[in-house]
Known about the structure:
alpha+beta
Amino acid sequence: MAGAAASSEGRQAFPVLQSVTHNTYQPLAWQALTELRGAVRKYGLGSAKVMQVLSYSNASLLTPFDIWSSARILFPLVEYDFFEHKWTQLAVRAVERNATLGPGDSRRTINTDMLLGTGNYTRAEGQAGFEPSVQEQCQQTGMAALVQTIQLATPQESFVTIVQGVDEPFLCVAGRLTAVVEKQWPLSLAKTSIVGLEGTKQCYMSRNPVAIMNPEGQTAIIWPHVTEIPQNL
């Protein structure tokens, strides 16, 4: 995909279509990509700042060239490969959906090379002249692939920790948890660690939500895939 991300114009990207009538291609300054690179270095890939910069860029026209340029800045090699796979997957699905549209719908003519800026569509200037329906799907699928790759690459906590209240017997909490959690080894785990007094700990795993209630009637519900729910029971 290197051709899709290369440009003979050097350090310029994020073009906007100034005039649809005359098909004028006007690249913005290098500042946008510089800001994105700075946000990744200073705040981290999955930070709110990075998402803010992407959201700001997404408000303008982004061609496939711009999406590839952003991906090269955001991701190291492994994540970049995943991004390429994900965008290709989303583009194929978009083309399949387009094929189900009515005979007169222009989106039926869109192919994956157009959405990805590959094959005969690698020139950024040509991409900027795409029909609005093509530009929209290019940007939607490309930005979705960027965001999903960021989410995958961002470290996540793998379990939920519930801290026992000072005045509550640990066995009281552990007993109720044992009763409501079906011990199993599913494909997707919610691992719950209960920290008791003096550092005692018990762990349970379940694919289903776990509800725990203390003697005062306070309830904590743990959902699979939730990364952190601090609770004092």
